[in-house]
Design brief:
7-stranded mixed β-sheet; single chain; Metallo-beta-lactamase, Chain A; about 290 residues; globular; about 35% helix; 5-stranded mixed β-sheet
């Protein structure tokens, strides 16, 4: 398995968005349905990926935990919602903007649960990217696991070679809410981490699988971007499929990566989907590189 950085990748994702920000990032909460919250950075500040929080008498479940620098703010935000500690932390994938506070959460009593490949990749990290033992998942799964807490059922299932090779999607079946992790970037070009086992075809397959279990009333917490609907996910899936087809046509015509970038095949999507980390050019190059896998 090819190793990928933990802290280094978090910095790569956040670099352009954090440079102009203060050191302090406050975590805010939005109640999605009673007892289930989305947590993210307040005042438009980047805290990492969108987090989920399920609270109730049976226990507290946190989905992802942002960048390392938000640990204190995240704990404070959770304390404002519930007086209980986090019992379980689910990592949706390995990237440091979703696992950065693992060690802090575990130190405060959380048991970390993730796909097998997340633990493997974190164990492989070395040097500046090495993680503390407490940041490692204590419980791992290969295909799926299910939580039955607070009167709710949360089905956690693996989607293969999508954003990475360790992605998990969380489906709250009784309240019709889905947390996609980074299998969805809402109104943003997606980051597909080819070096960490991700693939465009797998990403599209994962989105199609989520669409199949959703309906028009489903609330979707994406990895990045605002709360979404099934229609938003279909739009994102169709955009990526069309973008892949546009680039494939130029690759099949024998054009080089730079020639394809100059052709600007994704120009129609630039105004809505391009953003600081995955620009139109970077999305184009990623699609070209995906055909070399």
């Amino acid at each position: 398995m090819k190793s990928r950085t933990f802290a280094g990748l978090a910095l790569l994702l956040a670099a352009g968005l954090l440079l102009a920000q203060d050191d302090e990032i406050r975590v805010q909460s939005t109640e999605v349905v009673p007892g289930l919250y989305m947590l993210d950075g307040a005042d438009g500040k980047f805290a990492g990926g969108n987090m989920g929080l399920l609270v109730g008498a049976d226990g507290v479940v946190l989905i992802d935990d942002g960048l390392p620098i938000i640990s204190a703010s995240l704990l404070a935000a959770i304390a404002d919602i519930t007086g209980q500690p986090v019992d379980f932390l689910i990592n949706t994938h390995v990237h440091g903007d979703h696992t950065g506070s693992n060690a802090a959460m575990h130190a405060h009593g959380a048991t970390i649960i993730a796909h097998d490949n997340i633990r493997k990749r974190l164990l492989e990290a070395s040097g500046d990217d090495a993680v503390a033992p407490g940041a490692l998942p204590q419980i791992t799964f290969s295909d799926s696991t299910t939580f039955h807490l607070n009167g709710h059922t949360a089905h956690v299932f693996h989607v293969q070679h999508a954003h990475t090779d360790g992605d998990a999607v969380i489906h709250f079946t009784d309240i019709n809410v889905i947390h996609t992790g980074d299998v969805m970037f809402n109104k943003l070009f997606p980051f597909i981490d080819l070096d960490s086992g991700g693939s465009v075809d797998g990403f599209l397959a994962a989105q199609t699988r989520i669409i199949a279990i959703a309906d028009e009333d489903t609330i979707i917490i994406p990895g990045h971007g605002p709360l979404a609907t099934r229609a938003d996910l279909i739009l994102a899936r169709d955009m990526l499929a069309d973008s892949q087809a546009r680039v494939r046509k130029l690759v099949d015509a024998g054009m080089s990566e730079d020639e394809i970038v100059a052709e600007n095949p994704l120009a129609d999507y630039h105004d809505v989907w391009s953003w600081g980390f995955i620009t139109t050019e970077r999305m184009t190059r990623s699609l070209v590189q995906s055909f070399k896998q």
